[in-house]
Design brief:
42% helix, globular, 319 residues, alpha+beta, four-stranded antiparallel sheet, single chain
């Protein structure tokens, strides 16, 4: 990986300056979802490439474990350091595509394609009313942008696919970063973890477990969110009784009403109702989505069940 060249430095400086000029030179976290082969290229022989990216960008970069086909690259730091790291990754992928083309494996060099992982509660701001914002980004940058309709498995995040020339992608992601910094996620977020299948959930003594076979393995994401719910959600304290799949021994049932933006309802319901069925099964709560009211940008969602089922359903919905 031959970085940084004068051209690379110019590309990075331009992107960095654009964000800084808008007063957004603050802490930013950017997550990329990549296939194992792509991640291998970013890591490089004996970790040399990722080491160079870390050193030259000064961003904190964490790569998820490699025991599954997909992996997450998480970049954290000031906007300029994260954008510098992101630009170096984009240019490395472009270099790989150029090498493949030279080897005669493809007739022409395909566009660089990346997938960002973004909390679903921020995707509405990215899409804009009637798709106006995402259309504007496509037209102004020349990049192709697609926001996935469904949540990533066992998470409250969605994949945003960006494709085009390196310059178009860099400019496009600059716009996306501006939007997500100006529109923080709402409520707790369950991050996507590739290859993770939660299955049946056991909640006991403020600890969440994923049941796998005959074992109950601690599940840090759900535990963290359960603890958050004790302090932030308007429910009575959770009992210390063990609960499997959200079914609580206590028959006590209450209701909670939520207002959900119309553009997020689709990802909560999922394809043919798959996501809402999964949330109902995991939480043990009854969930009713009200009809769309003319002139309203939100839908009423009513959750009924035990306090624990309500709490689990709410942060699985991602509010």
């Amino acid at each position: 990986m031959h970085l940084p060249t004068a051209e690379t430095s110019n590309r990075m400086t331009s992107a960095d300056q654009s964000l800084t000029d808008r007063g957004l030179n603050v802490t930013l976290t950017l997550r990329l979802l990549m296939h194992g082969k792509e991640v291998g290229s970013i890591i490089g022989k004996k970790g040399e490439t990722i080491k160079r990216i870390r050193e030259e960008s000064s961003a904190r970069i964490i790569i998820s474990e490699g025991s599954c086909p997909e992996r997450i690259i998480t970049m954290t730091g000031s906007t300029d350091t994260v954008f510098r790291a992101f630009t170096m990754i984009v240019l490395k992928l472009e270099e790989d595509l150029a090498t493949t083309s030279l080897n005669g494996l493809v007739a022409s060099k395909p566009p660089v394609t990346l997938r960002l992982v973004i909390p679903a509660s921020q995707c509405g701001s990215l899409i804009g009313k009637g798709g106006s914002k995402i259309k504007e980004i496509r037209e102004s940058t020349g990049a192709q942008v697609q926001v996935a309709g469904d949540l990533l498995p066992n998470s409250t995040e969605r994949a945003v696919t960006v494709s085009g020339t390196p310059e178009a992608i860099i400019e496009c992601v600059r716009h996306i970063c501006t939007i997500i910094l100006e529109s923080p996620p709402k409520g707790a977020t369950i991050p996507y973890r590739p290859g993770l299948s939660m299955g049946t959930i056991l909640l006991s003594n403020n600890q969440a477990y994923a049941l796998q076979g005959h074992y109950a393995l601690p599940h840090p994401d759900l535990t963290k969110l359960q603890q958050l719910s004790l302090h932030q959600l308007p429910f009575s304290p959770l009992s210390h009784a063990s609960v499997v799949s959200g079914i609580e021994p206590s028959p006590k049932s209450t209701s909670q009403e939520l207002l959900i933006p119309n553009d997020l309802i689709g990802c909560i319901i999922g394809r043919q109702g798959s996501k809402i069925s999964e949330i109902r099964q995991m939480s043990g709560a009854q969930i009713k989505i009200g009809n769309q009211t003319e002139g309203s940008s939100e839908r009423l969602v009513t959750i009924t069940g035990s306090p624990l089922s309500l709490s689990l359903a709410q942060y699985l919905i991602g509010t």
